[in-house]
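We store sequence with structure; for instance:
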Amino acid sequence: MNGENKKSKENRKREENKKSIITSVFAVIILIGVFLIYSSYSKMLRLQAELKLQEAKEKIKKIEENEQKQAEAQQNLQNLQKDIQKVEETVANAVPQQTNYEEELMKRMSSVKDTDFEGSTAEMAEQAEKARKAWDDELNKVYKLLMSELSGEQKAKLQNSEREWIKNIEKEIEKMLDEECGLDEKGKRMTCGTVVVPIEAGTRMERTKERAIQLAKMYDEIHKK
């Protein structure tokens, strides 16, 4: 009887061990399954993340390309605007603009006393010379303007006429002095008094004034539309 009980206990113990082993095996299988499922899920999440990252990179690349194209388009537009401005300036410079140089000249010189000189002969000569210098400055200005705009042939004509004008002034002064001072038997000019000094200065001033106005008219003429 004792022997049977002992065997029965051993059998129960074996059954319990079997159950325990089976339970452990199932637990291990379940853990392995869970691990495999988690591993697959992790791989899937990683793959999805990589895909999203790739998509983000492509979007950023497209945005950068668009920004670059916009920057290039903006630069091209700016360059085009500069080219248009240069063309407009060239056209504007090529077309003579109407001027009123003579009128402006007379306004500038309205404060210069160039007539009715008063005082001694020396004082009148000084006043005339001061006026001549003022008109000579204006003459030089308009002469330079004309030389900067005329063609080669026209420049040469202006230069020649300027030289001729200077010669004519000297001829006129010499003739005036001969008439005022008189000539001796040998045809030489006699000694003149100081009275001719303001006359000579006044003559030079008048001719310089006339020449300045003449060139101002010439400048206005070439700028007529």
Observations:
- The chain is about 85% helix and 0% strand.
- The longest helix spans residues 2-94.
